[in-house]
Amino acid sequence: MSQSVSKEAPKEYMQSEKIWTKDFTLIVFSNFFIFLGFQMTLPTLPLFVEELGGNDQLIGLVVGIFTFSALIMRPFAGKALESKGRRFVFLIGLAIFILSVGTYGLIHSLFFLFAMRMVQGVGWGFSTTASGTIATDLIPANKRGEGMGYYGLSGNIALAFGPTLGLALAGKISFTQLFLICALLGLISLVLASFIRYKKIEPVTTAPKKWDLFEKTAIPPSLLLFFITVTFGGIASFLPIYTLQKEISGIEWYFLFYALALLVSRTFAGRLYDRKGHRAIYIPGTSLIIIAMILLAWLPNSYILYLAGILYGLGFGTVQPALQAWSVKESPPHRRGMANATFFSFFDLGVGVGAICFGQIAHWFGYNSIYMVSAVSVFISILIYVIILRTNRE
Known about the structure:
Layout: H1 11-15, H2 22-41, H3 45-51, H4 56-83, H5 86-104, H6 110-138, H7 144-170, H8 175-193, H9 219-245, H10 251-276, H11 282-298, H12 302-329, H13 336-365, H14 368-392
Helix pairs in contact: 2-6, 2-7, 2-8, 4-5, 4-6, 4-13, 5-6, 5-8, 6-13, 7-10, 7-12, 9-12, 9-13, 9-14, 10-12, 11-12, 11-14, 12-13, 13-14
């Protein structure tokens, strides 16, 4: 017997055709602040690891252990979203994230940093899985591509300012102060989340399946996402160090141009998906990502760095919301939490595999080889996509 929406749920959850309701606005801003705190740590943690005496392999492990921790938690988060409710999972995840990031500044050894990164991964896995599910609850089904595009803007705007702000502050204040600011942003997210009216879930009346770890209808788009987010592991972990090695300035502008391109792509990609589906989006978007990776492998100057950021932003910003909308499209309403958990699990797995593998690849072959391997990974996703189309005869 499947779960259903409680009759006590507000009518606007089921009937409203508006995207920008009060609750949707709250989830967008809550998502913005948690992503801003997260994005500020993204380019600064490698510098913190170096300060603690770490090398390329350890930097990759710091990123990878976080993503694998989040990956392990997402199936549990998906189940909890349906059994415990959206509010419980979201607020608990945000609280764990706040405590872990706020603790970073008190750490003076790599061992304890690894431990707290695992804790942060738990909070991140719960909070982001819940946030995406809450957003899909609130968006009318016939506008899901457009709505997820708007929802994704919150993370994109955070990306536009987070890395640049983090790098700027890292040069002016201590890491302790920086991480406390990131925790404060998480606290703002928690306060906003407490005002959202959440979908109520009927108690589970059947025994859960023993190996219910994924929503099978979400696996095809999630698998494609894996091969794309492998590239993000190489960018987030090693691009700041790579540009320093090549004596190329402007890494903060790379992240800004990348994020602005993401914003531009969100203005049309979601509506294009709603009208024409993923076939109009996927191959053009992934082709832009491949070109961006080749440019990073070459990287003769700052202008090519900026161009790579723009192309990567346009490509990823076009493809990612379409894949997320696709992942929940075929799932039953009571399985949206698990569908989002599946989607983000593959997201995390790609980033984690990329960060750990690229740390070793950089050690053996140099930083530029990271981005050639990334281009190959995205090309593999295109081949898999063609196979999916032929198999499903779409």
